[in-house]
Amino acid sequence: MKKNVLISGGSGFVGKQLTSLLIEAGYSVSILSRTKKQNTTDISYYHWDITRFIIDEEAVLNANFIIHLAGENIAEKRWTTKRKTEILESRVQSTRLIYEVLKKNNKQLDAFISASGIGIYGAINGSEICTESEPLINDFLGITCQKWEAAADQIESLKIRTVKIRTGLVLGKNEGFLKVISPIFKYKLGSALGSGNQFMPWIHITDLCAIYLKAIEDIEMKGSYNAAINDGTTNTIFSKTLAGVYGYSMWLPNIPEFIIQTILGEMSLMVLKGRRVSSDKIEKTGFKFQFVVLEKALKDCLL
């Protein structure tokens, strides 16, 4: 019988591609959804509502693995006080909801794998390469990721192997960050942001999904892992490379920080700040990135 992987956030950017990969790898897939959806040959859908703390417990009880991707998009709206609460609670409360079902039913999993983010190292600039043991920063992104991981650690306390994937900027076809900025660069209007010196640790979605599959199948994996390429890409390098993919040299001056701050408010930290992260820990598991050259990754996504 096929082992079942339950995915929260399965209809999102990463979730859709991950679902396809898991099915190809021989797993059955279940997805937690806020809206009713018709089951298919390969996918079973179960209802949950985080705001009402409701979940179809059968989804959890049938699972061998859970991959927890669910959470409000941090870049979708300005960070008002209300929005910050929504971002945090969507991650922490959803994890607690799963935890309560596992605990109540004394349900054991082969593994619980949770998304996290490199934002846990703080929205600051610096050339220091952050490992998973780096002291954490208590700004909004840092606190959000820390509380998200702490909620996952509750599941680990149930003697369930738990893995936390600290993800960098995800590059994919017609989705995510590139979907927003590629039209600007395509029409030769792209430029670097602020100083342009902020680091942008990135990962191709193919590699990110492969890391999740690795976390399922490698029983030695547990704890936190950075999921990003450590190649020293700054915002200027990223912008120039993206322009080059479209066949031209970037010609516009950097967009001043105050303009970005005016448009985005506190959320501007996401694009004006950035640190390098180490990929040594995940690579020591034997994982090999398919995309390690930014230009190749961008061409695969855009051309």
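Next protein, fold it too.
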Amino acid sequence: MNRDDLVAFLDEYLQISAYPDKSSNGLQVEGKEEVERIAFAVDTTLRTIERAVKGKADMLIVHHGMIWGGLNYVTGIHYKRLKALIENGLNLYVAHLPLDAHPEVGNNVGLLRLLDLEAKGPFGEYKGMSIGFHGEFDEAQPIEKVAQIIAEKLDTTVKTYEFGKKEIKTVGAISGAGAFALEEAHRKGIDLLVTGEFTHADYLTAIDLPQSVLVAGHYKTETLGVKALMGLIKEKFEVNVFFIDEPTGL
């Protein structure tokens, strides 16, 4: 299909311009005009670019792009990645916060679905907009059971910080670096914050609130959105698609 038609669909469907994001979302690098095969990945790295080219992709759609507000110099790793994209005519399309927050294919609604929960409402305010969701079990579940489900379905190592509730009724989900919502979770009575990563400072905030937290890995929690978007694009446009898995263990 025509690249510009696909980009126009993605821009509108993902509401690319609606989010205050440090990522430069949308078509970051222009390549071939006709797109027959699309690669999907979480991150833009030389390895993902090379694997996309090896897989004969015309476009690479990612969650983490290579331009975060602008490039001052095209040197070093920026040069290597950009050179690989341009020399191979590979389009690079990026959806950061718009893919976290999307109510159908987003990372955060995807985290709730792992627990068979529906999104009951918005959660995780970031620069005036909510990028996450919260859900609720019919009956309270032990935090260990919630952790086991996510560990098995995401094939990841899960760590829990049982500083607050140990019997979980309400869950707030924000993939990646979602610990910014710790105080909001506590204020709104969310029993468990499910996110991707946890720092020393986050630990201290959570224990003082107190707030229970489940951490499942930045990378793993953000595979959900690109995979869901991949399925949608394949069905809607009947193009060939494939996922490039480059786990970091983080």
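About the second fold: The longest helix spans residues 223-237.
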